[in-house]
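call fold(seq) -> tokens
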Amino acid sequence: MERFFLFLKHRVLLWVFVVFCAIIPNKVFSDTVTLEVDASKKRGEVPYLFRAGVFLNSLPVNYPLEKFFKDQRPGQMEFSWDFYPELLQCNSLKEFVDKLHSSNLSQWVKRTNDLGGEVLIKLMPVPKWLWSKNGGFRNSPKDYLGWAAFVEAIVDYFNNQLHIDARYVVWDEPDGFWHGTEQEYLELYKYSVLGVKKANKQAQIGGPATSILEGKINKGAATMPLVYNFIEYCSRTGLPALNMNRLPIDFLAWHVFDAVPISPGRYDLEVGKVKKWLTEFGFNADMEMNNASWNALSNYPSIGPWGRDNEFLSAYIVSSILAMDRAGIQRHIFFNLFEDWIITEKKTEFLGEQGLITRNYVIKPSYNAFKALGVLRGEMLDVKFDDPFLSAVISMDERNMYLLISNFIPPDEMLMRAVSVNLNVKGCSKADLERYGLHRDLLKELLNKRRSIEELQIPERVKDDIGQMVNYVQKARERQKIPVAMEILFENVPFKGNLKYSRYLIDVNHSNCYAIREKVDGAVKRTRNEAWQEGMKYLSKVWSKEEVDEVQSLRENKVALRELLKKLPEEKKKDLLEAQKVDRDFLYRKIDEINEWPEVKLQKTEEDTIQPSSSFRRAVSLKPYAVTLIVLSEP
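ret:
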């Protein structure tokens, strides 16, 4: 939740970075959109970016871990001890390393690596024994060499002992969560490099993972963003202990929340700016660009408070990842996977929060969107279409063709944020906008047709630009309410014999637990009560009735069982922990049944056999914020 509150502080800044299409030709708004797929035109392998890259702010094992790795192709996965009390409370380096071996964190890291995912370890926070003052986990360490030794021990364990190519990012959103100065953060990076490269020269390290590209630490004093100052600092700072003339940056990371997923857009502008900064200080402009945290973090009133629980976020995810790919971003981390860390009195799974999986591990439509992306295999093919709201990608392996389409229409709030930047892109500076009197409220009136463009005393080219945006906004509002009809033309299909046609769909009615939220909430409530009773049945076999009644009383009074555990002798603790395991195992079995309901899992809605032909057509309709996956399979 810290990220959410920090975002609220930055939301005024964020809107000025968002852009949308520079040219909106009328022809793209035809009644039927044609998608042309040419299987003879290949464009390289499916990007690693399309895998499920996520941040884990909790580390549950057993069913949650097994479910994720069963369904998803893991990409870049970010881990930290920041949300794991067993490591966070350690009082020495030895205690930390000893507990790291048997931790949930290590279980997740190992499975990620085994299944082809990339491990990204967030070097944050400062451990207790290095605090410079009480509560100093967000401040600079009292001993930078001690920090380097701490980092070295972590890298030695993951990269040397486990032989995992783990990578390391220094801190998370230091423009908000770092309580020291900018110079102290830069020193932290230097000593992090010392620890990483001393343990393993091949291990990669990067940063600074700011909340926005323009984020600053010394907000009153810094004249340039931290990302710029970070690059400049690394270019002029050596590390004699490792014979380095300058500090390495193996990847450049920053966060991008609520970007409109169109091209050219915010992703393109920010990647271009970062490449310019890298070139200015002698670094390779082709360095990995890493969107190290993203989501539709704002609440969009026109969508409703549960957009992150329903199909809206699914379409946003697919369209955003394709926009990142077009902009040259190679890695991403979606914020976040689980919601089990959220404490609330609400009696529902649907909280409008950022996770892909609810607090009781029911999968959301957004989870299914990542599953659909993970189906893509082989080589990318050429797909052509002319519509500003659709995103599509197609790939093919030896026996299958996979077409993924997203129908994401930016809500009004996204569109309104984009106006000033769109004019900037077309040549209107901030000073020009002020001179023309084009403040945000006026632009909003123009887009809503409450003011006439013609009455403005501004250059004709600016009138034309605003006119295009008015047209785009009106068409977006129309498309938010109606399905889009598509005709898909497949050409030069190399498969012989009959083809199996399978279509999967995520929309307001399919692959969408939110669509049956009352049924889901009822099933989860029953399951939790039944799971508790199963645990108590076990406990009643080994404890007296009075002891079991005490546990029941604690639950009724909402007292955490950990408080009782503190008072119990070791044998009793084992009994209570075993009862909790019985409870949890029962819960997991029943939740898995819910996740297999046709309305909840990625749902196949159509199946057909197509006669042999190198070219054929298929008609498809998509509702607003729908995602569809079409698979053609050779028997």
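Residues 517-542 form the longest helix (26 residues).
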